[in-house]
Amino acid sequence: xxxxxxxxxxxxxxxxSCSRPDQYDIIIRGGMVVDGTDSPPVATxxxxxxxxxKATGDLSTASADKIINAEGMYVAPGFIDIHSRVxxxxxxxxxxxxxxxxxxxxxxxxxxxxxxxxxxxxxxxMKPKISAYGLNQQWSTLGDFFDALSDKGVSINVGxxxxxxxxxxxxxxxxxxxxxxxxxxxMVFNLKKALQEGALGISFGFTGIAERYLKTGEVGSIGSLAxxxxxILASRVRYEDERAPIWVxxxxxxxxxxxKPGEFISVxxxxxxxxxxxxxxxxxxxxxxxxxxxxxxxxxxxAADIIPYPMYIDVLSDIxxxxxxxFGRNRLGVILQxxxxxxxxxxxxxxxxxxxxxLRKYWSRIRIIEVFNDSNRKYVGKTLYEITxxxxxxxxxxAGIILSEPFDIPIQIETLDESFIxxxxxxxxVKLCTGAPTIYNIDTDDExxxxxxxxxxxxxxxxxxxxxxxxxxxxxxxxxMTSLNSDRLNIHDRGRIIKxxxxxxxxxxLDAITPVTSPMVDSKFDTGVRYVLVNGTLVFDNxxxxxxxxxxxxYGGGKK
Length: 560
Prior knowledge:
Radius of gyration: 24 Å
CATH architecture of the largest domain: Alpha-Beta Barrel
Number of domains: 2
Shape: globular
Number of helices: 22
Strand content: 15-25%
Largest sheet: 9 strands, mixed
Number of strands: 25
Helix content: 25-40%
CATH topology of the largest domain: TIM Barrel
Structural class: alpha/beta
CATH superfamily of the largest domain: Metal-dependent hydrolases
Distance between the termini: 29 Å
C-alpha cells in the first residue's frame, strides 16, 4: 500500500511539473555563469527543479518558489575537493560548514587512510581517532561507514578512495613489516570488497614514516583491481623534495597494468598533493613538470591535484626520526614516556636538520593547527619554534603534546615552493584540492583562527590567481575545481552547469574575497561565497547554514 501511494505521488509530481514548464523550485537570476568548461562566463539564469538543473537561459518570465539574485556575482558548479582529509569529522558533524563556506559541495577522502575497513590490528590505532570525535565505532567496512553517514545525514556529497595503508594496517599492523603470502591475499580480498562497496579507487601515501619504506613491488599488482572496477589509483610521490623529478617515475609506473605477458594498459593515476619542497633550483620545477608531460605523451594516464598555497598538512609525530617512530604510535608513546630517551631523540633531530640554526629555520615553518586536548589549545597557530624557543629540552614539550593528544594532531608545514605552484597551475592536467578536513563543530561566527587550507583554500585561490595576479582566467580556475575533478573520478552527473546535471551550485562574489596574507584565518575572512546548493537544496544562504542535509554518497564504478 505504501509503495502504491509513493508511486502515485511521484506521478502526480511529474504531471504537475510537466504541466507547468516555467515553474521551478529555485531560479538563480542575473549572474555570470561559469559553466565548468572552457567557455567564458555568460550572463544568464539557471533554473533548478527538484535535484537537477532544468534550464539555463533567459528565465525572466518563469516563476519559482525561491529567486536568488546573483547580479554582480558568479554562478559556478559546486566545487569538488578531489583530495581532502575529511574522515570521521564529517560523520561527527555533517554540516561541513567550513567546506560550504568555500563553495565546496563534494569532498573526496581516503588518502592511504580511509574510514574503512577498520578491523583486526587497525582497531587499536583507529579507535582513539574515532572516539576523539565523540563517535562509537559501529562499522567495520567502507560500505558500513557510507551507510552510517547516509543515516545520520550530511550537507555535502562524499566519496572515498580505499586507502592501501588502511587495508594493510588491518592485516599487518601500521608498520614497515612485509606481509606474508596469506596476508597479501587477505589484503587483495579487502581491497576488492571496498571497491565493490563503492570506493572511487585505491590510494597510496608513500610519504609517511613507515609507508616510505614500502617496496613498490608490494603494490605493483594493485592496478589491475582498479582497472577491472573502472576506478583509478591515487598516490603521493614518494619524495617531494629535490628527489621528486626522479621518484615521479616510480609513481607513474603504478599506471602500467600487464593484462597479458608483455601487453600493458594504462590505469589512471592521480598524483595527490603535487608539490615541491622549497628550493632555489628553478630548473627542478620544469624538470618535474616536464617529466609528467613526457609520461602523458607516452600514453600514461597521469594527472595531479595541488594545494594552491605553499603549505601542506602532516602530523606532529612525523618530526620524530624514523629510528624511534617506525613501529607505530603505541610504541612511540612508550619511547616518549621514557625521559631518558628525550635528549637522544633531540640529538637525532638536530643531526637530521643540520644543526640548531637549521632546525630553528625549519621549525619556524611548522605550525600546530588543531588539537583535541583543551590544555594544548594555547599552541594552536603557533610554530614549533615559537613553542620551544628558550627551552633547554625542546623534546620534553613536544613529547608532552604528542602524549596528551588522543591521536596524531595535524601540523601545517609551510616549506613549499610557490613558484612551482604557479607553474603547475598552468598545466591543463592539474586540478585544485584543499588537502584539509572540515572544521569539526564550527559555526559561521566562530572567532578562533584556523588554517587557511581548512577555511579558504578555494576562494583564496580564485582571488589570488584570477582576480589579483591574472595567472588564469576564471573559467580555467573554475574548471580545475569542478569538471576536471568530476571527469577524473568518472562522476558524470556533476561538475557542469548544463541541463540534466545534478544541481550542485555555488554563487560567489569574486571582488569580496579577502586576500590571503596569513597561514591562519578566522571568521572575519570573507570567502565571497553567498549561496550554495547541493542536489537542488539551498544549504548555505548568505553566510548561514540552513540546517539541510541533502548530501549523497558518490560511489565508484565498481559498486555492486
